[in-house]
Specification:
8 helices, single chain, binds nicotinamide-adenine-dinucleotide, about 250 residues, seven-stranded parallel β-sheet
Length: about 250
């Protein structure tokens, strides 16, 4: 089968582990050249080493305007274009609303919602100039479709991402710039296992009709599709990948 993203100049933010690593894996397999930006440069270097010249690791914080402008400039210098921008970076702390400090609310919104805004703003002028761009954001079923207790900031940030995408979709449409949001259900990542504790993956699997959590590569496949020519007329929408989790009327 031919590579769907052959030669595409790609930025993946938050690709050093978990879902992001699965996204890098699939995009590279499909032929993309990837600049992997992450606050964990140590982990990002490890991923880049695995893929050789197809992946370059850079240290960047998605919540910082200067960092997003720097990686857009670096990608342009390295590739001469920016075809695909993929945001995966995100944080998901757990706290009841009455115990949630304002600073923590601000940090979640800053990484999960302001960050994608800063990344898009930094890449949009080049995408418009070249009359081509594919932006894929990582949302969640949490926020737009369902929620958990103690996830108010997270859910608000992921719901906000959908509004951001719909608006940018209209602004980018005439310039052949599409933007879409993947909405994973529960994904089996190392961080989820560490943060949610033992038994979580097995417990959550029971809530999924398919009987398992998503893998990072399942998410990578959804991103690759939305970034490919097969999706060139799809913009401003969301793609749920949850093994059927939100379909159940009764969870008993
Ligand atoms: N794991 C799940 O069940 C699940 C479900 C739905 C959506 N998501 C979303 O998928 C994304 C990834 O989740 P994960 O479980 O793989 O998380 P993870 O913590 O394993 O990976 C997140 C990556 O983003 C990086 N990162 C964090 N803050 C950053 C910042 N400020 N700037 C740049 N990089 C930063 C981290 O270093 C890490 O490499 C998040 O946006 C999350 O909200 C996860």
């Amino acid at each position: 089968m031919s590579e769907r993203l052959a030669g595409k100049a790609t930025i993946v933010i938050g690709g050093a582990r978990g879902i992001g690593e699965g996204v890098v894996d699939v995009l590279v397999r499909e032929g993309a050249s990837v600049m992997l930006a992450d606050i964990r440069k140590d982990l990002a270097d490890g991923v880049a080493d695995r893929f050789g010249s197809k992946v370059t690791a850079v240290e960047a914080d998605i919540s910082r305007q200067g960092d997003m402008e720097r990686i857009a400039a670096l990608a342009l210098e390295r590739f001469g274009r920016i075809d695909i921008l993929c945001q995966v970076a995100g944080i998901y702390p757990v706290k009841a609303i009455e115990d949630l400090p304002e600073e923590e609310w601000d940090r979640v919104l800053s990484v999960n919602l302001k960050g994608p805004f800063l990344a898009i703003r930094a890449c949009m002028p080049q995408m418009k100039r070249q009359k081509y761009g594919r932006i894929v954001l990582t949302g969640s079923i949490t926020g737009p479709l369902v929620s958990w207790p103690e996830h108010s900031a997270y859910a608000a940030s992921k719901a906000g991402l959908v509004g951001l995408a719909k608006t940018v979709a209209i602004e980018g449409a005439a310039h052949n710039v599409t933007i879409n949001v993947i909405e994973p259900g529960n994904v089996d990542t190392e961080n989820v296992r560490r943060e949610r504790g033992p038994g979580h993956v097995e417990f959550m699997s029971k809530a999924v009709p398919m009987g398992r959590l998503a893998t990072p590569n399942d998410c990578g496949e959804a991103v690759a599709f939305l970034a490919s020519d097969a999706a060139s007329y799809i913009t401003g929408t969301t793609l749920v990948l949850d093994g059927g989790q939100v379909l159940l009327e009764a969870k008993v």
